[in-house]
Amino acid sequence: MKKLLLATVMAMTPVAAMADVTIIDKLSGTGDNVVFDSQVGGLILGSFNGQNQGVVDFTDLSGNALFVGAQNGNDIKIANTSDLQIQVFDATNTSVLPTATDVFSLKGTGTVTAFVTANEPGGGTTLFTFNLGMIDPNAQSGFTLSAINGETINMYTLLDVGGNITDFEHYRVDVATSAVPEPSTWGMMLLGFVGLAFAFRSRRKVVGLA
Amino acid sequence: MTVPTKGETYFKLMEHLRLAQEDAAMLMHLEQAEGGAAGTVIGRGWWHVTENLKKLQGHITVLAKRGLQ
């Protein structure tokens, strides 16, 4: 009886909102447009402009990817890959920039699975797996990956089973705002404290003279 | 108890191989996301497992086509 009561209470207790990363099958959300720049072996580099500055690494593990030359903006594309790994870096290509939203479209054959590693707000990482289903060889299938409830996307891999992604384009990223203050913010705060200390010191001197 | 046909056996086997390929790819992703030299090397190893499972699916499909003719 006690166990039954406990189970009933547990079932009725509201569960706290779980940390989550979601994917929807359309191009949605705001962000900086990514322009594909160049290819060196299996590594394709992209850069983004707008609110943020940064570099995107597209690592093609299958070694077959083709960077299709620039024509206009994000019509530039990556073709012929079955394992594409995507990670966003800062403008100097040294530290990882976590993102809140990643938008992309795919064309090709086979079934695509997305593996997403997200940083949890309280520390640690979680893996999310999404089955994107069969992709169309003739029409673009758009997807939007969103981190909600405070986590950020660190890296993701698109795996095409039984086919190839013949087109990856319309890529847009929204860099997540960092909870850790930037060095410039620390500098401003330090300057503020120095200013306050100076103001208190000046006031004490005035009181002493009166 | 029914005896599965050759076609059913083929599709079940392919499904298991696809799942195994996805699992290997997931481990590859996790190792790569972990970063560092070791993560990259182990991730690369899992990628080769992924590729071998993919090749195996191709070989079995070729054999099945011959056997089913």
* Biggest beta sheet attributes of chain A: 11 strands, antiparallel
Number of domains of chain A: 2
Question: Roughly what fraction of the amino acids of chain A lie in strands?
Answer: over 45%
Helix content of chain A: 10-25%
Number of helices of chain B: 2
SSE layout:
The complex is a heterodimer of chains A (210) and B (69).
Chain A: H1 2-12, E1 20-24, E2 32-40, E3 43-48, E4 54-60, E5 66-68, E6 77-79, E7 83-90, E8 99-108, E9 111-119, E10 125-134, E11 141-148, E12 152-161, E13 165-175, H2 183-209
Antiparallel strand pairs in A: 1-11, 2-3, 2-13, 3-4, 4-7, 5-6, 7-12, 8-11, 8-13, 9-10, 9-12
Chain B: H1 6-34, H2 36-68
What does this structure look like?
- The complex is a heterodimer of chains A (210) and B (69).
- Chain A is of the alpha+beta class and 210 residues long.
- Helix content of chain A is 18%, strand content 47%.
- Chain A has two domains: 19-179, Jelly Rolls; 183-210.
- Chain A has helices at residues 2-12, 183-209; strands spanning 20-24, 32-40, 43-48, 54-60, 66-68, 77-79, 83-90, 99-108, 111-119, 125-134, 141-148, 152-161, 165-175.
- In chain A, the strands form two sheets. In chain A, strands 1-11-8-13-2-3-4-7-12-9-10 form an eleven-stranded antiparallel sheet, with no helix packed on it. In chain A, strands 5-6 form a two-stranded antiparallel ribbon.
- Chain B has 69 residues and is mainly alpha-helical.
- Helix content of chain B is 90%, strand content 0%.
- The A-B interface holds A 61-62, 82-83, 85, 111, 113, 115, 117, 125, 127, 129, 154-157, 159, 161-162 and B 18, 21-22, 25-26, 28-30, 32-33, 44, 47, 50-51, 54, 57.
